[in-house]
Amino acid sequence: MSELKAAATPGPDPDVPGTPARRPAAVAVAVVLAAVLAGCGGAPPAEPPAPAPTAAPTTRPAPKAGPVRLGSAPAYAALATTDVTVRSRPRGGEVVGLFPRTTPWGSPTPFLVEGARRNVTGETWLKVLVPRRPNESTGWLRRDQVRLRPVDYEVEVSLSARTVRLLRDGREVATWPAGVGRSYTPTPTGRFFVTVKLRPPQISTVYGAWALGLSGYSEVHEQFGTGDGQIALHGTHDPAGDLGREVSNGCVRLDNQAITTMAETLPLGTPVTIRA
Predict the structure, then answer these.
(1) 221 has catalytic annotation
(2) Where are the chain's structural domains?
(3) In CATH, what is the architecture of 72-151?
(4) CATH 2.40.440.10 fits 153-275, yes or no
(5) Among 26, 103, 187, 244, which residue has the least CB neighbours within 10 Å?
(6) Whether residue 40 lies in the annotated active site
């Protein structure tokens, strides 16, 4: 019995002097325990990477005040999208005129743009010819009161030659003989534009197939019949008696085919220059 007990009692590790025989097992347990403790948060977690620096917010530069180029078209018409207030200067000055969104015939009230400027607040103002007395009156309106339309046609009237020329991009498309105002009821000279296009029964057949009202007014007549003295390019039923002559109260007369071509070609706002 004593031999059995002696044999069961562990002795020193024969390979490691002075150490107990089960030391490797104890070391293994200690290593496993350390690993478990580390996995349970015994060691502090690694710090997350620092966030990337954010870009500073960009500031839009203030709008540059000054002239504005509208585009490359020869001219621009401004068609009212609301009732329009025209002033003597951008953002102020006296009121030059108040114009309804549409004419009495239902078409948009047009203006001919002469220039554009932007102010420091970003507003764009248009300098325009206005359809009122005195002839060639101008004023300023806000860009957001109108829509712009490029115009590549223009009309030139020569009173001395008694002709009307139609041009596109500065090149002649057609020339027609015309009747013009008499010496005592002359056709006014200046730069105007087409304000309305009418044909019978909207107007009397006296005016032929079409009448293209202009922004100019007679300088001697306050009225033509029931009108307000507004001049026009219009047709005639007597081309032999009218064309090439001084026959009118200030309007410019063309044969019906010519005025029909112009009415079908020219948009509202088309420039019309009348020269002596």
Answers:
(1) no
(2) 72-151, 153-275
(3) Roll (2.30)
(4) yes
(5) 26
(6) no
